[in-house]
Design a protein that fits this description.
266 residues; alpha/beta; TIM Barrel; 2 domains; six-stranded parallel beta sheet; two-stranded antiparallel ribbon; 8 strands; globular; PLC-like_Pdiesterase_TIM-brl; GDPD
């Protein structure tokens, strides 16, 4: 953790994070009359490149390289046009342009990984299904995980995404596709496994069905989102056999989790 703080220009001491009772306090939302950030402080510095992050941290630190790319695939573009009654014309991206760009992007990132990651564990992941497929076809050394909300809507979801790509609208379909493409697994919202029952209605039978499907297909599953940082869900995730959870503020979370263990000092 100290290596990561140094990488971003922060002091190594965890006391620099605002806390109350030893627990991290999330900062309030910015207001129009708030002072401007210090452009000469850590928050004003450029983000380190991936190659720097690899070189300046221990090879004991694993990386989840989430590759940001537009989620809408070529299939989604064509399906949207058909649903809207639009002609399939040359203005739509075709394999010669769409996949050429995906291919080039994957080559660039993989080149950085091969040259700088060293022996550390590295996971590759993306919301773009085609990009995940390309990553798997290009190499089999690094695990590739497909990120999907599995039908749980979001204000940031691309227009009509849930209607044009079943891999984003149905978690079972996403699991089947990941298995078909020989991916290592999926990343999805913890709400599918009961992390935030007040936001998403699920039941134990549905959870057990998903777990059975993943076990049968030998797929890993990481979860993120509302409720996954609650200690109670961590125990549920362990009992379910989920591969892991994705959270922010790992140091504060681990302090909270350690404090919750029997025999821990108050």
């Amino acid at each position: 953790l100290d290596e990561l703080r140094n990488l971003f220009g922060y002091e190594a001491s965890p006391s620099s994070s605002p806390t109350k009772g030893g627990r991290f306090i999330h900062p309030a939302a910015l207001k129009s009359d708030d002072p401007e950030p210090d452009e000469y402080g850590p928050d004003g510095q450029p983000l380190p490149e991936l190659s720097e992050a690899f070189r300046q941290t221990s090879t004991k630190l694993g990386f989840n390289v989430e590759m940001k790319y537009p989620r809408e695939t070529l299939l989604g573009c064509i399906t949207r046009a058909v649903n809207n009654g639009e002609p399939i014309t040359a203005h739509l991206p075709g394999p010669h342009t769409y996949f050429a760009q995906v291919n080039k992007f994957c080559d660039k990132v993989l080149d950085v990984v091969w040259k700088n990651a060293g022996p550390r564990p590295v996971i590759l992941s993306s919301f773009n299904a085609d990009l995940c497929a390309v990553l798997r076809l290009k190499q089999s050394h690094l695990p590739v995980l497909f990120i999907t909300r599995g039908g749980i809507t979001s204000a940031t979801e691309p227009p009509s995404m849930l209607h044009v790509d079943l891999r984003h609208s149905n978690l079972s379909v996403a699991l089947s596709w990941a298995h078909l493409m020989n991916l290592s697994g999926v990343v999805t919202l913890g709400q599918h496994f009961g992390s935030a029952k007040q936001l998403y209605d699920t039941n134990q039978d549905q959870i057990n069905s998903l777990l059975s499907d993943m076990q049968e297909k030998k797929l890993a599953c990481l979860v993120y989102g509302d409720g996954v940082s609650e200690v109670s869900f961590l125990h549920d995730a362990a009992n379910y056999g989920l591969t892991g959870i994705i959270i922010d503020r790992v140091d504060s979370y681990m302090r909270e989790y350690t404090d919750s263990l029997p025999g821990s000092p108050v």
